[in-house]
Amino acid sequence: MLNSRLSAVESASKHLFNEITEVNADRGVHIYNKNVFSTQKMKDYLPKETYERLQATIDSGGKIPRELAEYIAQAMKTWALENGATHYSHWFQPLTGTTAEKHDAFFEPDGSGGAIEKFNANALVQQEPDASSFPHGGIRNTFEARGYTAWDPSSPAFIFETGAGKTLCIPTVFVSYTGEALDYKAPLLKSTAAIDKAATDVAQYFDKSVSKVNVSLGIEQEYFLVDLSLYNARPDLKMTGRTLFGHMSAKGQQLDDHYFGAIPERVLAYMVDLENEALKLGIPLKTRHNEVAPSQYECAPMFEESNLAIDHNQMLMNLMEQVAVRHNFRVLLHEKPYSGVNGSGKHNNWSLVTNTGINLLSPGKTPKNNLMFLTFFVNTIKAVHTHADLLRASIASHSNDHRLGANEAPPAIISIFLGSQLDEILEEVESARVVKKVKAEANLWHGIPKIPDLKRDNTDRNRTSPFAFTGNKFEFRAVGSSANSALPMTVLNAIVAKQLIEFKTEVDKQIKKGTKKDLAILNVVRKYIKESKAIRFEGNGYSEEWEKEAEARGLSNIKSTPKALDVYLTPSSLRLFESLGIYTQRESIARHEILLENFYKKMQIEARVLGDMVTSQIAPACFIYQNELIENVRGLKELGLGKESYSSQFNYLERISKHVNHILEKAEEMRQARKKANIITDMREKAIAYDETVKPFFDEIRYDVNKLEKIVDDSRWPLPKLRELLFSH
Ligand code: ADP
Ligand code: MG
After folding, report:
1. Minimum-distance ligand to the CA of 286?
2. In the predicted model, is pLDDT for residue 618 greater than 50?
3. Is the minimum distance from the CB of 473 to ligand 1 under 6 angstroms?
4. Which of 468, 493, 575, 705 could be disulfide-bonded to 417 (CB atoms 3.0-4.6 Å)?
5. Angle between helices 420-431 and 367-386 (to 10 degrees)
């Protein structure tokens, strides 16, 4: 009988020849938004006057009155039933990092033997899922236990298809009865309101017609695909999303051949299927390509308003998993599924766009427009400089720690790459002599160089920067591939909003003292350029020299999550979030605790899986092979052969014994360390204990297991090897 690995390898090779599922004839534009209760559908299903009232309410961000909600509920129901939906669900993003749904049937017995289909404004607007099973960070212990979900009319309802099941999903926020947010969406919406207000106020210096500023967001999603059977034979992948062992295959990414290679047929079939499913849900997937590591890929939609972009990314991650199984794949969204090859990120392309259609981070043609561009550009840089630690915290998770700050990963330092052209322009603005009192308007503009057309090529060369300016947007690349982007975007919106408010205060002060508006703006912009210089870095962000230089510049480099999260609780962070109406202090404290809890729990699972695999899979395979070697030596001896004939076997036996003893001992020590950590009650101390006393065993044990993988008989090895996982399709 084949062992679990070899039978997995065998079925994986069969999957290669799987009939490619027939691609739906309905594609592209024909299916876009098919399963979305879009603006157009609302128009079709609502009386004209009702539709117009609804749009006006959504645009103004106001509350939707009950009787209007009733109309919408009826229209939504009609549309959903016509399209085969049988259930509806409030769809939300609890702090577990996934999405949650609780399905209710439209069906309701009518009391006289028949049944009707029922859905009304109450069901649309508010629901009460049992909040006790979601993370709440102590909020529930002291307050009301129940939570409720409330409709977010700014993100359209959609029908999610799972096999034959069709469910009408209504995007909602998730809040406790005492009003604290228990999800990612509620604070995100508050942060977009905060930055809207702050950015609109500043944009009005330049253009009085601006009355709203939206955050635009395009999320590139990196991922790995692995064959389903091979995945099933790896408990570590199944339980933790990453391989805890695995000797690096002889060929990895060193030839750089994957990035430029053709997309394998089996993978392309997956991508086409995924794109179709995504389009139906209104997710505008545009690009697909191979990534650097073998079996690593990327997809990216066209950018959208940030709340929608984030909902879409959460839906996309669900779809990716669902569609993968149809193709006998599993998708790995973990930041570092394999040691030795690149990890995966989720690049958040972020910009600010006015209601008049102007991208505030797009350099203009005239000096006056450029002052507006420079204002938002420099304020963002200043915000990132001042609050780099908050941004670092916003992307901290147990899995992203492997991608940033770990031994084979780039350092966890936040810096900004601008590209040489813009870097020079900022130098120029900073050093230009600006006439103190502007007599002629023309004199002022000497301080502002003309900004040439920024060719993408010139701005996008540096792939090592965690935060890069790429032509007309900033790209936050340190976000982890499995993360919900709402948290990093909430923090980014918050710090930029805060910065813009400060900026306006400073400029207004100067204006009050008699400085002309444009000069006042330029003065503060120049001051900010000077103050935020340390965060700008054009070199190789992955290098050791950068780590040293960053330290000299006073930039922080916090390697692990539990410590990176500390910044959420500093008085200035608490005040920042509270003053912007994003998190109350209680919410900040609760969130901090949830993040720590997630961190240690994930690590606890890893430690358990690792221990189990060592004792129940790896050590036994080694023992069997050892016995075979012993048998071999015994036989040779019996034949009367001398020591030299079995010296290699001896040597192997010794090495195997040494490594096996080591992993078993270390697994036991790790268990003891875990027991000690488990009794710590303070969440931060507990997370640190896991990080500092449990986690180090992972690499120690991995080292010996990888040695064993190299010497134990290939046919005895129980776990699919990296060469199989990475090169199976
Ligand atoms: P690359 O891999 O070179 O960074 P991609 O085309 O894969 O480029 O991704 C770029 C992402 O940035 C896309 O999602 C795109 O829609 C988005 N994007 C482009 N312009 C803006 C903008 N003004 N605001 C936000 N996102 C943008
Ligand atoms: Mg990119």
Report:
1. 1
2. yes
3. yes
4. 468
5. 100
Average pLDDT over residues 343-360: 96
Are 301 and 475 spatial neighbours (Cβ–Cβ below 8 Å)?
no
- Give residue 139's pLDDT: 63
The DSSP H or E segment spanning 237 is helix 235-240
Query: Side chain identity at 364, as an amino acid letter?
Result: G
CB 678 within 8 A of CB 694: no
User: Helix, strand or coil for residue 282?
Assistant: coil
For the Cβ of 588 lying below 6 angstroms from any atom of ligand 1, the answer is no
Of all atoms in ligand 1, which is nearest to the CA of residue 470? Answer: 4
Strands 213-227 and 285-290 come out as unpaired
* Residues whose CB is less than 8 angstroms from the CB of residue 393 and which lie 6 or more positions away in sequence, other chains included: 491, 564, 565, 566, 567, 568
Dump pLDDT digits (tens) for 4-32.
899 999 999 888 876 555 555 677 788 99
Confidence of residue 438 (pLDDT cuts 50, 70, 90): very low
- CA-atom Rg of the chain in angstroms: 29
What the block records as the tokens of 464 is 């090592």
pLDDT in tens, 120-167: 999 999 888 766 667 777 665 544 456 889 999 999 999 999 888 999
Please tell me the predicted confidence (pLDDT) of residue 496: 98
Taking the C-alpha atoms of residue 442 and residue 455, their distance in angstroms, rounded to an integer, is: 28
Q: How many CB atoms lie within 10 A of CB 465?
A: 26
Output the six-digit token pair for 102: 């609780």
What are the b/e assignments for 389-398, b being 16+ CB within 10 Å? bbbbbbbbbb
Q: Do residues 610 and 244 touch, judged by C-beta distance below 8 A? A: yes
pLDDT, residue 453, reads: 60
Whether the Cβ atoms of residue 21 and residue 45 lie closer than 8 Å to each other: no
Burial environment of residue 587 by CB neighbours within 10 A (0 to 12, 13 to 18, 19 or more): buried
- Phi and psi of 220, rounded to 5°? -85, 135
Question: Average pLDDT in the 375-397 region?
Answer: 97
Region 516-545 average pLDDT: 93
**84 Cα: distance to centroid of ligand 1 (angstroms):** 35
Ligand nearest to the CA of 466: 2
Burial of 351 (0-12, 13-18, 19+ CB in 10 A): buried
CA–CA separation, 241 vs 344, rounded Å? 12
- 48, two tokens: 């004209």
Kindly report the length of the chain: 729
Res 530 pLDDT > 50: yes
Instruction: Report the residue among 192, 213, 220 best suited for mutation to probe ligand 1: largest number of ligand atoms under 8 A from its CB.
Output: 220
CA of 475 to the centre of ligand 2 (A): 7
pLDDT at 163: 84
Which value, to the nearest 10 degrees, does the dihedral of the CA atoms of residues 275, 277, 283, 284 take? 30
Structure tokens at 724: 């199989």
The more confidently predicted of residues 254 and 710 is: 710
DSSP 65: P
Q: Specify whether the CB–CB gap between 149 and 172 falls below 8 A.
A: yes
User: What would the pLDDT profile of 36-49 be if each residue is shown by its tens digit?
Assistant: 999 999 999 999 99
Span from the CA of 196 to the centroid of ligand 2 (angstroms): 25
pLDDT the model gives residue 604:
97
pLDDT per residue as tens digits for the range 601-616: 999 999 999 999 999 9
What value does the mean pLDDT of the chain take? 90
The average pLDDT across 621-631 equals 96
For 597, list phi and psi in degrees, rounded to 5: -65, -45
Give yes or no for a contact between 591 and 678, defined as CB atoms under 8 angstroms apart.
no
Cβ neighbours around 509 below 10 Å, total: 12
519: closest CA among 531, 507, 501, 535?
507
Instruction: Give the phi and the psi of residue 621 in degrees, each rounded to 5.
Output: -60, -40
pTM exceeds 0.90 for this model: yes
